[in-house]
Each structure stands twice: as structure tokens, then as C-alpha cells.
Amino acid sequence: MPIARAAKRATVRLGAVALVGALLAACGAGNSSGSDSSDSAGGKVTLTVDLFGSFGFKEAGLYEEYQKLNPGVTIKQSDTQDEADYWKSLQTRLAGGGGLADVQGVEVGRIASVTQQQSDKFQDLKEFGADKLKGEFAEAKWSAATTKDGKILGLGTDVGPEAMCYRTDLFKQAGLPTDREELAKKWATWDGYLELGKEYKKKAPAKSAWLDSVASLYGIMIGQEEERYYDASGELIYEKNPAVKAAWDASVEAAEAGLSAKLDQWSPQWNQAFAAGSFATIPCPAWMLGYVKGQAGEKGQGKWDIAKLPGGAGNWGGSYLSIPRAAKHKKEAYQLIEWLTAPEQQAKVFQKQGNFPSSTGAIEKIADAKDAYFSNAPIGQIFGDAAKESPVQVLGVHDQNVMQQITNALSEVERKGVSSEKAWGTAKKGVANVIG
Amino acid sequence: MSLTATAKAGPRRPAGTGPGPDDGRAAALRRTWRKASPYAYIAPFFTLFLAFGLFPLLYTAFVSLYRVELQTSGEMEWRGLANYTALFSDEFFWTSLRNTFTIGVLSTVPQLAMALGLAHLLNYKLRGRTFIRTAILLPYATSVAAATLVFAQLFGRDFGLINYVIGLVGFDPVDWQTGTVASQIAVSTIVIWRWTGYNALIYLAGMQSIPHELYEAAEMDGASRWRQFIHVTLPGLRPTIIFTVIISTIGATQLFGEPLLFEGSISGGISHQYQTLGLYMYEQGWGFFHLGRAAAIAWVMFVLIVVIVGVNALIVRRRTRKEAGR
Amino acid sequence: MTALAAPPTAPGKDGPPQTPPPGRRLRKRGAGRTMKGGWLSYVILGFALLISAFPFYWTIVAASRSNADMAQVPPSLLPGPNLIKNFEQVLEEADIGKALLNSLIVSSSITLGTVLCCTLAGFAFAKLKFKGRGALLTLTIGTMMIPPQLGVIPLFMLIAELQWVNQLQAVILPGLVSAFGVFFMRQYLVQSLPDELIEAARVDGASTARIFWSIVIPIARPGMAVLGMLTFMTAWNDFFWPIIALSSQEPTVQVALRQLGGGYVNDQSVIMAGTLLGTLPVLLVFGLLGRQIVGGIMQGAVKG
């Protein structure tokens, strides 16, 4: 029975071939398309840099410069606008141990999670001699990325000293003063800011609100506080923290007075609103300048200005560059981040993008910087003062998520007219859900 | 088990390679092989299925009994059924369950009703019917991501086209993102848009397999087109309708991409107003990194679907029996 | 669970008694109604077509304008001049070229593998007798009810264990498990492959494998083509698992679309241009094979 025998063989083979074939095709496909950029043959290295928001390295031409200085190095950057998305994807890859870039950005709201929960997953930069850089960074910036046992897990890029951006053209139309000094005096306190907002509302151009969203208002106010959601011992204290309450109440007041354009930060609508003039003021951490320029576009040139923040100095955000343990080119990556965070480079990013340096050397360099886009506002001075005066913040593991729950609840007040008490209840439930 | 079957059959092969004089042994082998060979056919599927289908399923059950966090996934802390019991007092879980249900109804009912109507029309003799059928299926070819991005823009509050049209007609603009009902309608619209054409074609196929004689008989009885639709088409389509209802219900229970991408918010809007179970699971797992809790939600979803399909089956069976008894 | 198995087969039972010759298209002449559609039918259908086509048109409009245009009231309804510029920006911001290639690799591998596995298994379930057939079939169909979200966590852990995160096989291999495909091929073969053919072949001494190659495959080919097309589209459009398993460094089109908001200037027009680029290949396939896909879905509906 030759046929039967041949058939038997064929059947078994078929099964085997189908399976192996499927496996091979899949693996082959996966490999050939090459997820690894580690063509280190011939001394050539491709460094991958994965970031969120806008760090401004590319915009300031730093990669090109670095590649010229180091002919063997090619830099590839990928980025995600929304930090929450970015963080999710980073965590997934850290857990999976694959697909990590050589350099990963970390937001200051997450740095506590890195130092307290994942110090084993990031490279201790001390091994490459990072400890000698300690004196070059603002003290608070440096210590936040250092673990209790002295590991250095990230180098600071920018900090987020806060100011207020406003549209001079809209202010004029509403009959408000446009001089930044005068405004700084008028809104020396948050009450003054809200009062001015109510005045603006009376005479404002159609479809234009005082501020973009109460979530940004809350964010900027809470940035003025030293203790926010956690105390120094790591205990969750936001519920009884009067500072949280004060920022909450002011935001509720703004919402209930109808001062906000009710936009969702980082949403497409929010982006479109920059150009459309839907709001007259937007709380501005330094890194927001680049964003404003990008969204408002060329037409916005000269229409914007920057004044000192109501209620004193504060800090919102800022970032670090870290190297995952699983990175392929740790040494080269370290050389890159040391260079990127050096004073000269930080100063360049600031001039191009507005991201305020965390390096003390860079802060000196840019002290008299002005920004033409923002009506020649003395951004070096405004943000420099804010950086000097802002409090050293206590950071917690879930800072970012806790804040997200609170601002979500505030948006309910703002957009749905939910009462403050009810929204606060929602916020508390949301926080409990986050902490798990 | 399929694997062992293949393996068992393997080693005996060489025995039969030579021109075998011992026919008895060969026959016995053949018999064994005939019994075993079917397993070889299902082996590739079941191997993959075991690795990437069944194993994850069972392991999810295991994970759901622990506290597991993505950042520290090495450390697992036994929680027993606490992940499940916590859901009962979890307001957000109930919200998402309710949303899944309302969005499910909002999307499935109009979708299938319109599909039925369209199929009825498509069943007429029409000019360019191939073109019409293809065009009507077009939305099915787009991805959830693409469709949602486009619709999110159309539904924009301040600059969206839909609100502009609403304004032209003289109504106030609708906040399609914030309002509970409005946002759920918006999300359902995306689902309806993508699937109506597909279901219409399924119904059309069902209609075409209804014997023509039935219509002729109805016509002879003087039944109008409408009555023919009610008394011939609908009963003839019953099995197809049930099929689409079940498939759409399963789809609705698993709804995820549309609400996620509608605003890019993993909480399904500021007050979870359109967060579905699938999205809530995603938020727990990939927003807050609580893998154990996410696994528990996933199992609840599974049980829910089984119950829904079971209820469907019961209804079908009862109705069939009733009709048989008539 | 039987509910799922029962209804799809039922149309066959209710349908005409004459089974069509195997392998041919199931287009029964005389079945269905031949009444002509009135003008109202055309109007309603025209309206339906308009609705199904409008979002595509709108994508083109938005993709060819600028962010500022999109924020205008009244909105512009005609395409603008920026299409090429926006395409360029998409290519710069998201690695769409790579994403398209990756999607092609992923979707074709999944399609080939799925069609092969499912035809094999579908044939066994349809025509071969073996122990546990019923149970295994029920198990397979039962998995159609499993939400894809359910397996994701352990699947991710598995992929992580294998060090596959961010590699294409992490998306391909799980994509091959298609309970629907097995069920579809089974239904197809149950109806198009007469038992007599197999028995006759057996009498002639043909083995199962030979029967599979020379009888089953030719008859199953139309069904395989339909399954292939459906699988390809599903794989191309899938994004739940890819956004977890892959990242912007190794994206499929859907992942790239999700990431597209990540540029420095998050521009609505650029996002729409990306959407357009990601959808074009599927639309192209659809334009070329639309008739077959429609036929396939309808055929699948009657059979599966």
C-alpha cells in the first residue's frame, strides 16, 4: 500500500510543516523587520530615545549637533504627546523587558515611582560617574532622582517654573491692561486673578473665556505647594491637606463663575482653541511656551505675553532622562544624556523651546533671555525668579494619577455643573481606585 | 492531547517504510493511524490554541486571585476572592456595567433594525447592485482606530461638523463628550456606522435563501409587500437574526476601542460616562497597573457573555419548541 | 453553547433542498425576490451610501487642510491644498512606512497561518470521526465568546517571558488562533463537500491526506479565500493587542495611528492624513476585491 504509506507520511509532515512553518514565518518576519537597532558593527551605534510631550532636543538641533560631534552615533527619537500614554507603554515594556529605548524620559510626577519601586529596572548612573555632576544641578532636582541607598537613576532636563501666559489682543478688546508689570500687580493673589477674570467676562469677545480649563488652574496652583498628596514619610495626605483644598476651592470658584473655556487639556479641541482664541489666559509652566507656539502657530506671534504668576512662585513638571537596565547601549546612552543635560545644551533648548533648565550653569546663561513670540517677555528673568523661589516639593508614587482623578472631578464641576461636595466625593473614590 | 496523538503516530512510521511482507501488522498500523490521524489535522490549531488561547484564559483566573501590580509584577500577594468582592462595592464597576448595557442597546438595536431595512431594499432588483453592496460594506473595512478618530472630530464640541449642522437647524450645540446620553450616542454611532452594512449583507444572504415559492404563495393569497415581509421574510430570517443578535451582543459586551479613542481617555470621559467594561478593565490594568483586579473584571465579562448567550439560547429553544407544538 | 452552533447551520435547513454542486458559488437563481425597486428604494439606499461614504470624504477634506482650517466656523467642506504637506509631516512624525510594512507582514502571516490551520481543523471537524470531536468543537466555539481582553494579561506575561515584547511575532502568533475560522471552514465543508465524494475516494484506496490534498482543498478554495480576506482585514485593523505588545518603535499601522497624536504639533489635519494613509491599503484591497468580499460575506452568512 504505497499510497497509504506516503499519505501517512504526508499527513504527519503536513501537520509538522504547518506548525513549524507558521512559527518560522512568524519569527522570521519578526526578526527580518528587525526590532533591534543595534548595528554596532564598525563602531556605529544607533541610540534610541523615547520621550513624551516635547523635550525640544530635536527642535533645538541637538541631535544633529551630537551626531556631528560623534560620527559613529545615530540618534532616533520617538515620542508620545500624552504622558499618561507614554508611561503606560514604558511600564509595559519594563515589565516585559523588551522594546526599551536606550534613553527613556521620566516625568517628575513619576520619578518617585522609579526611585521607590523600580530602582532595579533602571541603570545606576553613578557607575558611569554621574556623581561628579551633583553640584551642577538644582538640589531638589538632583535629590528626587536619587534613591535612599544613593543610586542615581536619572539626569534632570528641565524644571517647570510657573508663570501666566495671556493674549494681549483679547485683553485689549476687553478693555484690560496688557502690561505685564501692571497685571502682575493686579493679580498678585489668586483672588485678584479671578476678579480680573470676571471683569474680562463682562466685556470679552464672543466665544472667548478667561482661562482654558480649571484643570490647568488647579495644576498651577498646586504647583506652588511644598506638600501636596503625600507627606515626607510617604503617607497619602491629600484629603486633609489645606493646600489641596485651597486650590480645589479656587478652581471651583472659577468653574462656577463660568470663567473657563471648559476644554480638556491635551485634547484636539484644546489644541485647536489656541489658534481660535477661545481663552485669554493659560497657566504656563515654562515647558508650555513651546506648546503654545506650536499650537497657536505663526499667526499667534506677538499676540501673547507672559506675566508673573498670581500667588507666588511654583513648579509644575519637569523631567529626567533615564537609562533602562535592559538598554542595549548603556555607555553610549550615558554619554548622550550627560551631553544633553549639560548647561550649554539646556540653555539652547530653553532658547528654542522654553523648557527651563535644571542645570544651575544654564540658568545663569539665560538670565536675560527674551522671547520674541511672547512680545519680548523677559522669560529668563520671570522663570528664573520663579525657579529660585519655588518650593522643594515632596513627591509621591502616585502623584500623577491622584492629580488626574482630582482634575477629572473638577472638570465635572466645570462642565456638568456638579456640586463641589459631590465632585470631591468622586475624586476621593477615584483616588482610592487608583491606589488600589 | 492532540500533541500526544501526533507523537504516538510518529515513531511507528519507520516500521512501514519498507515494502512490508507482514500485512497483518501493516493493517493494524493502518487502523491505529486512521484513528489517530484526525488529531494531526487539528493539532496545529490546538497547539496554538493551547498556548495563546486556553493558557491565558486559565492563567487569568489564577492572576485574578492575587494582588499583582505591573510595576512590580514579580511580587504576587494572595487575595483570594477579594478582587471579585471588591467589584460589588465599586461604583465605577457598576457604572461601566451599566454603560456597557446602554451603549450595547443604543448601538445594536438601531444597527440591526436598519440593516434589516437595507437588506430588504437590496433584495429588490436594482441597478448597480454590486456597487451598492460594496459601498455599503465600506465602513466595515475601516479600522476602529481610523473610524473613531474621524468621528471624534465630527462630534467635536466647538468645531465639529455635527454641532455646526445642529446649529444651522437652530438648536444649541451638544457637548458630545461630556453629556452621558450624548457621549453614549456618539460612541454608538461609530459602532452603528461600521457594522450596519455588514449585517445588511448577512440579512440579504438570508433573504435570498428563502424559497421563492413562499412569496408566490403569499402573493396568491393577496398579501401586500409589507405583509410578505412580516409573514414570509421575517420568519425565514429568524435563524439569521438570532445569529446576528448573538454576535452583536458579544461584540457590544467587549466594546473597547471606540470609547478608548473617542477622547483618548482611559476613564471613558471625566465622569466615566461612557466607560465600558472593556475599558474599565484596561484602565485598571494599563492605567493604574492593577493586573489582578483587571483579571477579575475580565472574568466577570466572560461570565456575563456566557450568561447572555445562554439566555439567548434558552429563548430560542423555548420559542422553537412552542412553534413546533403549534 | 449550542446556541452558537445551531443558528448558523439553520439557514441551510430552511433553505432549498437542492444542495448546490460543490465548489460553485451559492447564487441560486430564482431564490430571493426579483421585484424591481421603486424610486423610494433608490432614495433611501442613496442616503445610506452617502452616510457610509461621508466619513471617508471628510477624512480627505480634513487631511488636505490645516489645523487652523479645522477650527473654523463654518467648517470647510471642500478639500484644501495641504494634502502632500500633511502626508510629509505624518511620515516624519510617525514611522508610517515601517508601520505599513509591519502591518503587511503581520496581516499576511496571520492570514496564511490562519487559513491553513483552520482548513485542516475545519476538515477534521466536518468530515473525520474521532474521539472527543464534539467536545473539542464545543470548546473551540466556546472560545469565540471570550473577550479578547480576558487573555491579555497572561498573554502579555507569556510574551514578556519569551522576550517578544515589541517584536512582530508577539502579534502574529496569538493572531493565528481563530476559533471563528475553524468554525467557518467546518460549516463550509459540511455543506460543500458531499460525504459520497470522500467515501468514493476511500473505496479507491485514497488516504485521508490524499483526500485532503486532491479533494478537500480544491473544494474548500473559495471558502479559504473568503476566510483569508476576512482574516486579513481583521488583522490589519486589530489594535487592542498590538498597542499593548508593540510600541512606536515597532508599530503596526493602528499603533502608529494611536501614536500620531504624539508629535510636537498635535495637528488634526496631520492625524487625519495619517488615518487616510493607514486606511488606503484596505480600501485598495476593497476596491479590487470588493465584489468577492461581498460575495464571501454573504456566502459565509448562509454557510457559517
Automatic annotation (TrEMBL), chain A:
Coiled-coil features, chain-numbered ranges: none
PROSITE patterns to which the protein is assigned, alphabetical: PROKAR_LIPOPROTEIN
Keyword tags: Signal
Pfam families cross-referenced by the UniProt entry: SBP_bac_8
PANTHER family in UniProt: ARABINOSE-BINDING PROTEIN-RELATED (PTHR43649), SUGAR BINDING SECRETED PROTEIN (PTHR43649:SF32)
Signal peptide segment: 1-25
SUPFAM superfamilies in the cross-refs: Periplasmic binding protein-like II
Domain of life assignment: Bacteria
Name of the protein in question: Extracellular solute-binding protein
Gene3D superfamilies from the UniProt entry: Periplasmic binding protein-like II
From TrEMBL, chain B:
Record bears the keyword rRNA-binding: no
Subcellular location: Cell membrane
Superkingdom, natural source: Bacteria
Primary location: membrane
Assigned keywords, A-Z: Cell membrane, Membrane, Transmembrane, Transmembrane helix, Transport
Family matches, as InterPro entries: ABC_transporter_permease, MetI-like, MetI-like_sf
Segments passing through the bilayer: 39-62, 101-122, 134-156, 176-195, 237-257, 296-316
Region (Disordered): 1-26
Topology in membrane: Multi-pass membrane protein
UniProt domain ABC transmembrane type-1: residue ranges: 97-310
Family classification: Belongs to the binding-protein-dependent transport system permease family.
Name of the featured protein: Sugar ABC transporter permease
Record organism: Streptomyces stephensoniae
From TrEMBL, chain C:
Any one annotated GO CC term: plasma membrane
Transmembrane regions: 39-60, 104-125, 137-159, 171-190, 211-236, 270-289
Residue span of region Disordered: 1-30
Pfam family membership, one: BPD_transp_1
Cell compartments where the protein resides: Cell membrane
UniProt xrefs under SUPFAM superfamilies: MetI-like (SSF161098)
ABC transmembrane type-1 domain: residues covered: 100-289
Membrane disposition: Multi-pass membrane protein
Coarse class of the protein's main subcellular location: membrane
InterPro entries in UniProt: MetI-like, MetI-like_sf
Family per record: Belongs to the binding-protein-dependent transport system permease family.
Name of the protein this chain belongs to: Sugar ABC transporter permease
Source organism (scientific name): Kitasatospora albolonga
